[in-house]
Specification:
Elements: H1 5-25, E1 30-33, E2 39-42, H2 44-50, H3 54-57, H4 68-82, E3 87-95, E4 101-112, E5 118-127, H5 129-174, H6 180-208, E6 217-220, H7 221-231, H8 233-239, E7 242-245, E8 250-253, H9 255-271, E9 279-287, E10 290-297, H10 329-339, E11 344-348, E12 354-361
Parallel strand pairs: 7-9
Antiparallel strand pairs: 1-2, 1-5, 3-4, 4-5, 6-8, 9-10, 10-12, 11-12
This protein binds adenosine-5'-diphosphate.
């Protein structure tokens, strides 16, 4: 039997009541605005989180409640929203009635009528104060760790210099009183001290690796690769390495850090070679909103059980006499890729060559509230 119009109307009314309840009691503050940005309505969470009452907000502009450092980004996002784009996870800071600054992740979108004409705008503002506090704690711990590593490196350098210096003196002044074994031991001390010195220098460099995503610029990856190859010129010649590259894109990034990334990966591809001529291929393919790069070699390969751990600082799979190095290069590569919001990994097998993959998103995340040092 067909439903009568009155019961249909009642059903729609009941649904509407439910939807209104979800809006009013929703878990996050929601603000509805007209196309000029004036508040048309808001739910009760706005008052609970920010302390602003509904009656004092209706009909008002609220731009002044955004922290000054978010204003410019908010303006750009407003334009994107007017074009129909839903902007998610915009990091902003909103001033509460008490004066407290509340960090939020905002989802902002346009509201349209049944003909698709814009009629208003909605902001859903997730209060991320606990998340921000946790991030601040982690950032502080990171800074403390870096500071500790720096202090330790400086403190280690002095006794290390003394060990090396005395071993040199022993060799120079008393070398003739020592037998060949004794002289060899002294040389080993000098070599070990030299190696430890290099490790300390590389570790220090790793702690200094920083790149503010706010300062990223458009970069031509083919030019970056050429610079890296120029820096590796001597090693390439010495090993007669053959390096080929597909066309590479331009993207948003930190030029010198990306150069270092190529240099470390290609340097390794040459260093961990087999007897045959090192053949290295660099390529990039598009995948959704990021570029996926690969650096492929025909070198000694890596045992699958070590594929993850080689990205940790100071991890090496070979003795110094087989392949020199300090085990910092890939840790630096990982830091550089992660600073760009991407990921790095390797596919390989023993004796099969290796393919290093890394991704670089088109643009760094919307803003970097959680990465800024406080
Ligand atoms: P280092 O080159 O100073 O040893 P890295 O951090 O650059 O340090 O590399 C860590 C380890 O990963 C290397 O010691 C090596 O065992 C392995 N590795 C890195 N790149 C390659 C490669 N292209 N082929 C084979 N093994 C590699």
């Amino acid at each position: 039997m067909p439903e009568n119009p009155t019961s249909q109307l009642k059903q729609i009314e009941a649904q509407l009541r439910l939807m209104t309840k979800v809006f009013m009691d929703g878990a996050d503050p929601i603000v509805i605005r007209d196309l000029d940005g004036r508040v048309l309505d808001m739910n009760s969470e706005v008052e609970r989180v920010f302390g602003w009452k509904r009656e004092e907000m209706i009909g008002k502009w609220t731009r002044h409640l955004l922290a000054p450092e978010c204003q410019e980004a908010a303006e750009a996002i407003h334009e994107r929203r007017l074009k129909g784009e839903t902007v998610r996870n915009f990091e902003a800071i909103v001033r509460a009635k008490s004066g407290r600054l509340v960090p939020v992740l905002a989802t902002m979108f346009l509201l349209t009528d049944e003909d698709g004409q814009p009629v208003g705008m909605a902001d859903i503002l997730k209060d991320v104060t606990p998340l921000k506090q946790a991030c601040n704690r982690i950032q502080q711990q990171n800074r403390d760790l870096k500071e500790f590593a720096r202090a330790l490196s400086h403190d280690l350098a002095t006794p290390l210099g003394a060990i090396r210096g005395f071993a040199d003196i022993l060799l120079d002044d008393n070398g003739e009183q020592l037998d060949e074994d004794g002289r060899e031991h002294c040389r080993s001390i000098v070599d070990a001290a030299e190696r430890m010195n290099q490790m300390i220098k590389d570790l220090l460099e790793l702690t200094r690796l920083e790149g503010d995503p706010g300062k990223f610029v458009p970069v031509e990856m083919s030019a970056i690769l050429n610079d890296a190859l120029a820096n590796l010129h001597a090693v390439i010649q010495e090993n007669e390495a053959v390096i080929a590259s597909d066309p590479l894109p331009s993207l948003h990034g930190h030029a010198s850090l990306l150069g270092r990334l190529f240099q470390n990966l290609i340097g390794n591809a040459i260093k961990f070679r087999r007897h045959e001529t090192p053949q290295i291929h660099v390529s990039a393919i598009r995948s959704d909103d990021l570029w996926h790069f690969t650096v492929e070699d025909n070198g000694i390969g890596i045992d699958p059980e070590h594929l993850e751990k080689i990205f940790a600082p100071l991890t090496r799979l070979h003795g110094e006499s087989t392949f020199p190095g300090t085990g910092i290069g890939l840790a630096a590569c990982r830091s550089i890729v992660e600073l760009h919001g991407g990921r790095i990994w390797v596919e390989s097998g023993k004796g099969q060559g290796s393919v290093f993959h890394f991704t670089i998103p088109d643009r760094p995340p919307e803003s970097h509230l959680f990465q800024k040092e406080q």
